[in-house]
Write a structure and sequence with these properties.
Radius of gyration: 27 Å
Shape: flat
CATH topology of the largest domain: Receptor-associated Protein
Distance between the termini: 53 Å
CATH architecture of the largest domain: Up-down Bundle
Length: 290
Amino acid sequence: MRGICGAVILILAAAWFILRLKSGRRYVNLRGLPMEGIRLRKVGEPLLLLVEASRITSYFPSVIFKIQRSIQKSQGARQGAERTLLFLGEMLSYSWLLLIAGCTLSLITGERIGIVLGTFLAGALPIALVSDLHKKVKLREQLITLELPELLNSIVLLVGAGETVQRALVRCSASRKGDISHPLYRELATMISEWESGYSFQQAFENFSKRCAVQEVALFTTTVLLNYRRGGGDFALSLRDLSRMLWERRKAISRTRGEQASAKLVFPMVVIFLIVIVLVGTPAFMMLNM
């Protein structure tokens, strides 16, 4: 077993160094590409050559499309293919390191459990990374949907007080300038910087909708672009109707999240109940046996 594990470690290490030499400066443009959650750029860079050479993306087109779509929603539409490649390299890096760690454990202990555990984790961790990516995107969409009615209410009040739509959006963004971590206000700040740098209001608003990639934001964008030129009571009335509908959706999401939180508490409560039964019942059984 130790001989097999040693040979596997040598093969994996030699393969990485060969890929490192062959890749050269092929992926040098990806080194400075900003992307959250990528920690093993240097380890994964040679493995990107393996991804392209094996054409693994052509065997699972639907999976790769979903990954790229989630990355574009969370990281932005620009350079989506490059970021998807980085994510695949990150997945392979974790699998490669886990295989080496499992073989090293078996080499030290002489037991098979190390390589079995390493192989299992090497296959399970990429699935967990993809699942975590989709969960983050879903959470981002929920945060945007939950905050959008608040933003819309502020816009309705400001427009009703005589502000233009553009000035209302600027004031809403400025009031939450310290909360730039929120995805809605981060995209709103990007939209404002776009039209200030030369984009038309309509183009910047459409880009805002595409970056958010949420149905409620698309509806909000359509309503604003169709009615903001009219102004007056019609525009304020259309925004109020939209606000009521978005508040209903917010309530539905809040109820769903509450039900999910309650479901997560069921298992700990069952465990606590069993522990209490054991603590209470053990003395009673001991007294009966006596």
